[in-house]
Design goal:
- The longest helix has 18 residues.
- Helices cover 25% and strands 20% of the residues.
- It is α/β, with parallel strands linked by helices and 222 residues long.
- It has a six-stranded mixed β-sheet. A five-stranded parallel β-sheet has the order 3-6-9-12-15. A four-stranded parallel β-sheet has the order 4-7-10-13, with no helix packed on it.
- Helix 3 packs antiparallel against helix 4.
- It binds coenzyme A.
- Coenzyme A binds next to strand 16.
Length: 222
């Protein structure tokens, strides 16, 4: 069921939030550092990860501060804090984005994660990745990334599509269609194949919603 909110004459439809998992902080920090060590061969110590990985600093701020503020309705302060962090790390995570456990952003600079993006557990992305929208409507307009997905540097994943569990998105791919679990996607527009090489038929491109609640502010695309 969707709830409707009227603002500036526009209807805003946002799916209700399913309860998010509460992870004890000690466990979150430990498993995030472990994930970085497992996924980055350049790591030499845990201290290096804790002090020197902007992706972790940004995601910890998201989990500890900006996302809780957003959920409690303190939207301006959530946005301002996330923008401050963007200035420090080059990583922009909208406070509304829902992010699972052991999310690892390597390098980080240029990453943009939109308001209605949903990210599962054990997801890894490289620098310059965009999880963006293709619509100006205030609805679910960003991707859902399921568990274990890897998204290569410079890839753009656009629209309310689903990238299935364990899929890999190649560097610089532009993905606008659903991706089956376990598939590999490369190119512009992204073409999916299974790891063995078998090409997969293109999923239909979801039509961006075009209700009469289009806003003029293009910043909602990000
Ligand atoms: C897409 C990817 C996951 C594929 O890995 P893979 O399954 O091992 O695939 P292969 O390396 O065997 O390549 C298979 C084919 O896809 C092509 N290919 C691989 N990556 C590609 C990419 N990003 N864009 C376009 N084509 C690509 C290869 O040239 C090869 O083509 P061919 O069959 O015509 O020879 C990987 O190449 C990739 O892009 N990973 C992202 C890594 C990254 O962003 N690193 C940043 C570090 S800072």
């Amino acid at each position: 069921m969707l709830r409707a909110i009227r603002r500036r004459g526009a209807v805003e439809q946002i799916p209700p939030s399913a309860p998010e998992e509460r992870v004890p902080w000690r466990l979150r920090l430990t498993e995030d550092v472990d994930a970085a060590i497992a996924r980055d061969p350049a790591v030499h110590s845990r201290v290096e990860v804790v002090l020197g990985y902007p992706g972790l600093h940004t995601i910890w701020l998201h989990h500890a501060v900006t996302h809780p503020l957003w959920l409690r309705g303190h939207r301006l302060s959530a946005r301002l804090i996330s923008q401050w962090m963007r200035g420090r790390t080059g990583i922009e995570i909208h406070p509304g984005a829902r992010i699972g456990r052991r999310f690892f952003i390597d390098h980080g600079n240029g990453v943009v994660i939109g308001e209605t993006a949903e990210i599962g557990d054990d997801v890894m992305i490289y620098h310059d990745v965009t999880l963006g929208g293709r619509s100006l409507a205030k609805v679910k307009r960003h991707p859902t990334i399921e568990d274990g997905v890897v998204i290569g540097a410079g890839a753009r994943v656009l629209g309310p599509i689903t990238v299935g569990t364990g899929a890999q998105i190649g560097a610089n791919a532009v993905v606008v269609r659903d991706v089956p679990a376990g598939a590999v996607v490369v190119g512009v527009p992204g073409k999916a194949r299974m790891p063995g090489g078998e090409a997969l038929p293109d999923a239909p491109t979801p039509t961006p919603p075009t209700p009469d609640d289009v806003l003029v502010d293009p910043a909602i695309w990000i």
